[in-house]
Amino acid sequence: MTSASQSVVPNSVTGDVTVWVQVLVDSPGAQGLYTYSVPDNCVVRSGDILTVPFGTQLVGGIALQLCDVLPNDLDPSQIKPIDAVMRSAFFPPVYWALLERVATYYYTPLMQVVRAALPPRLLAKSQRRVRLLSADLPDAAQLAELLSPMGLKLLQILQNSKTGDYAWQFLQRQKIKGLAKTVRELTKVGLVETFFEPPQGIRPKLQQAVTMLQSSPAQLTDRQSEVFELLRRRGGEMWLTELLHVSHASSAVVKALANKGCVTIAPQEVLRSEQYEVAGDQAKLLTLDQQAALATITGLSGNAEVLLHGVTGSGKTEVYLQAIAPLLAQGQSALVLVPEIGLTPQLTDRFRARFGDRVCVYHSALSDGERYDTWRKMLMGQPQVVIGTRSAVFAPLPNLGLIVLDEEHDSSFKQDQPAPCYHARMVAQWRSELENCPLILGSATPALESWQHIRTAPVPQRHYLSLPERVGGRAMPPVKVVDMRQELIGGNRSMFSRRLQSAIRELQATGKQGILFIHRRGYSTHVSCRSCGFVMECPHCDVSLSHHQTHPDAMSILRCHYCGYTQAQPSRCPSCDSTYLKHFGSGTQKVIQELKRLFPELRMLRFDSDTTRTKGAHRALLNQFAKGEADLLIGTQMLTKGIDLPQVTLVGIVSADGVLHLQDFRASERAFQTLLQVAGRAGRGDEPGQVILQTYTPEHPVVEAVVRQNYAEFVTAELGLRELLDYPPYGRLILLRLSSPEAEAVEKGAEKVASVLAADPAAQYEILGPAPAAITRVARRYRWQIMLKFPLDVALQIPSIERLRSVSGSLVSLSIDVDPMTIL
Ligand SMILES: Nc1ncnc2c1ncn2[C@@H]1O[C@H](COP(=O)(O)OP(=O)(O)OP(=O)(O)O)[C@@H](O)[C@H]1O
Ligand SMILES: [Zn+2]
Ligand SMILES: [Zn+2]
């Protein structure tokens, strides 16, 4: 594939030079680019959305590249013309350059990247229609002279349409010879145009609107002038339903106004978006550290990268807000990326309070219709702030002035599957280069990669900015470690230490609130037989089943967190028939049951992916908690981030061990980040906070680092270990994942792929594996992997994927993960 960035050449058809266009075709059968010719009367630019003939169909496509020489293996007589230009200059050229870069770096076909970037079904099922442009046609004699017989026939058909338009497929059935040519003929003389109708379900939503036409019409009835007056006071335009509702008038009254020529009633596009209501808010007086950071950021011009390293509660968000405000005033837009939807409500509220409806939210939990509308709003080019998760890094914002990645260390910025397995931080770096705008990476616990990237290379465009203290001189909450082995020795068999219990009791007494962090959702992590040791496992995956039980009398359910398999818990051990099945480990549900037993009065809210599945559930739960409707918020990973509630004085970590003992070279880094983030939720208001961290391994270096809350110290030690092993950020990785329903096929396939990799003369990598994945079977597929370790500063070059796929065998699927984050 060739680069689209060099191809902003408008089609200048002069003389007999034929112009060819290379098109990215949106059809499941399409691979790579296809060449079409551009008909004489047609102007194509790269970035246009086209329809092209493909096989027996007409499909959507995107013009990537224009050329005036045909690749020499192609026969000009075999090349078909494009059918029509549906939308001109839909995408700016730098946008294409970005998508191409993603495709190349992540070894993914460009069309797949396009699909990841575009809202769903934008091209896929769009329907092409033809419409009459004007009702006043020239007279019959003139038309007969102007048009071919087929042209006349088409015109007649369209005139018979009530709406003046017909679907292409309908017209094809009307026996018009050379429909495409005929439509072009009519287009050329300005009688018709073709357009894309968005797919069903995501077409623009229309609603009747009433618009005032005169300022003070005479001769109205009392009722009519009342309604008219109301409309005028509301700015002269209202939705019909709203006007009827507010004025208590009947639609006959409004119709009468329309008949008298005072108003029009016409359908208008409603842009669907999440409903919200927030009070306005003003810029805060910055602390000295914030001021210094903001001064650097606003002083940047063009491409630059900033690491904003601010401890939890140091006011990073306020810096983003004040950095964005002047951009909007200058007509530029900003993109703010956040890791998870769970923490967007509070953040989006803050942005909306400051910038009102110039804020758009874009994430995968929106309905297709909402996503489509948000896209349209973005493309309209008004200065705006888009807040979104990972995929919003592709938001087509014209005139981008700044990109912010909040909580940049978070692993949910990386897409694990499907391809492209991109990291939004990487894509944001490219985008800021291509758009020539600054990028801010914000975190209390920066990723080692980001820290190393900014700190080591003394490049003028990279800035390290620090906010070492909390706003308002608030203290960081002290972290108290409780050794759970000592508790056991002291006779406490509960999962709550005496210290945590008394802290919870104190919460209740003083009316404060607390957050309890548990590593796992569900009830317990696994179920096994005390008599024979049998562990209940998923029949489709090599993992143990988790036990779920919503309340003590509810049925016990076993669930696989990898494939969703669910079964009732048997009453006897399937292996030895004993009745001694026991639950091990504690999930959110078990913690809640235990707390209910210890503190019958305690009001609790559970916040994990089980309770936040429905739309708006995050916001509802957080609102309830913020309003003081519960004493304790109990949840998983999700509540480590972003929650900013001044009344929270206690954070309890029920067991740090689950986070500490993961088997991956990033385990320590992740554990440190998670624990420090969750600790940071305490003491953000006027009352000081405290953190109680329970563990069986208090001497673990990560626990010690969390107690000292010293990022730099932790990072220095951790970087030393990484350097010894050439792991990132001292080397780079590509993970090849193979899977198959056949155990033997995947093992053989992995070995063959590894031997091709080893035989590559250009190889600059070290091969680790092939080896079975840590979880060797998921959803009935056996999994193997091969890790390639590259030194820094060499290109991540591997043999072609087609080659690797061809040797891996037909039963095996192979995917490539560049810079993998999870290696399970
Ligand atoms: N200059 C300021 N004056 C007064 N209050 C401020 C100021 N800056 C921020 N705040 C408030 O301090 C609180 C913490 O700020 P913010 O949430 O932005 O911190 P943060 O650094 O993003 O924290 P975290 O990383 O923990 O999410 C917020 O309630 C915010 O409104
Ligand atoms: Zn048993
Ligand atoms: Zn399973």
From TrEMBL:
<dbReference type="Pfam" id="PF17764">
    <property type="entry name" value="PriA_3primeBD"/>
</dbReference>
<dbReference type="Pfam" id="PF18074">
    <property type="entry name" value="PriA_C"/>
</dbReference>
<dbReference type="GO" id="GO:0006270">
    <property type="term" value="P:DNA replication initiation"/>
</dbReference>
<feature type="binding site">
    <location>
        <position position="576"/>
    </location>
    <ligand>
        <name>Zn(2+) 1</name>
    </ligand>
</feature>
<keyword id="KW-0413">Isomerase</keyword>
<comment type="similarity">
    <text>Belongs to the helicase family. PriA subfamily.</text>
</comment>
<dbReference type="InterPro" id="IPR042115">
    <property type="entry name" value="PriA_3primeBD_sf"/>
</dbReference>
<dbReference type="GO" id="GO:0008270">
    <property type="term" value="F:zinc ion binding"/>
</dbReference>
<dbReference type="GO" id="GO:0005524">
    <property type="term" value="F:ATP binding"/>
</dbReference>
<keyword id="KW-0347">Helicase</keyword>
<dbReference type="GO" id="GO:0006310">
    <property type="term" value="P:DNA recombination"/>
</dbReference>
<dbReference type="GO" id="GO:0003677">
    <property type="term" value="F:DNA binding"/>
</dbReference>
<dbReference type="GO" id="GO:0006302">
    <property type="term" value="P:double-strand break repair"/>
</dbReference>
<dbReference type="Pfam" id="PF00270">
    <property type="entry name" value="DEAD"/>
</dbReference>
<feature type="domain" description="Helicase ATP-binding">
    <location>
        <begin position="297"/>
        <end position="464"/>
    </location>
</feature>
<dbReference type="InterPro" id="IPR001650">
    <property type="entry name" value="Helicase_C-like"/>
</dbReference>
<feature type="binding site">
    <location>
        <position position="538"/>
    </location>
    <ligand>
        <name>Zn(2+) 2</name>
    </ligand>
</feature>
<dbReference type="GO" id="GO:0006269">
    <property type="term" value="P:DNA replication, synthesis of primer"/>
</dbReference>
<protein>
    <recommendedName>
        <fullName>Replication restart protein PriA</fullName>
        <ecNumber>5.6.2.4</ecNumber>
    </recommendedName>
</protein>
<dbReference type="InterPro" id="IPR005259">
    <property type="entry name" value="PriA"/>
</dbReference>
<comment type="function">
    <text>Initiates the restart of stalled replication forks, which reloads the replicative helicase on sites other than the origin of replication. Recognizes and binds to abandoned replication forks and remodels them to uncover a helicase loading site. Promotes assembly of the primosome at these replication forks.</text>
</comment>
<dbReference type="InterPro" id="IPR040498">
    <property type="entry name" value="PriA_CRR"/>
</dbReference>
<keyword id="KW-0862">Zinc</keyword>
<comment type="subunit">
    <text>Component of the replication restart primosome.</text>
</comment>
<feature type="binding site">
    <location>
        <position position="573"/>
    </location>
    <ligand>
        <name>Zn(2+) 1</name>
    </ligand>
</feature>
<feature type="binding site">
    <location>
        <position position="560"/>
    </location>
    <ligand>
        <name>Zn(2+) 2</name>
    </ligand>
</feature>
<keyword id="KW-0547">Nucleotide-binding</keyword>
<dbReference type="InterPro" id="IPR041236">
    <property type="entry name" value="PriA_C"/>
</dbReference>
<keyword id="KW-0238">DNA-binding</keyword>
<keyword id="KW-0479">Metal-binding</keyword>
<feature type="domain" description="Helicase C-terminal">
    <location>
        <begin position="568"/>
        <end position="722"/>
    </location>
</feature>
<keyword id="KW-0639">Primosome</keyword>
<dbReference type="GO" id="GO:0043138">
    <property type="term" value="F:3'-5' DNA helicase activity"/>
</dbReference>
<dbReference type="Pfam" id="PF00271">
    <property type="entry name" value="Helicase_C"/>
</dbReference>
<dbReference type="Pfam" id="PF18319">
    <property type="entry name" value="Zn_ribbon_PriA"/>
</dbReference>
<feature type="binding site">
    <location>
        <position position="532"/>
    </location>
    <ligand>
        <name>Zn(2+) 1</name>
    </ligand>
</feature>
<dbReference type="InterPro" id="IPR011545">
    <property type="entry name" value="DEAD/DEAH_box_helicase_dom"/>
</dbReference>
<keyword id="KW-0235">DNA replication</keyword>
<feature type="binding site">
    <location>
        <position position="529"/>
    </location>
    <ligand>
        <name>Zn(2+) 1</name>
    </ligand>
</feature>
<dbReference type="GO" id="GO:0016787">
    <property type="term" value="F:hydrolase activity"/>
</dbReference>
<dbReference type="InterPro" id="IPR041222">
    <property type="entry name" value="PriA_3primeBD"/>
</dbReference>
<dbReference type="GO" id="GO:1990077">
    <property type="term" value="C:primosome complex"/>
</dbReference>
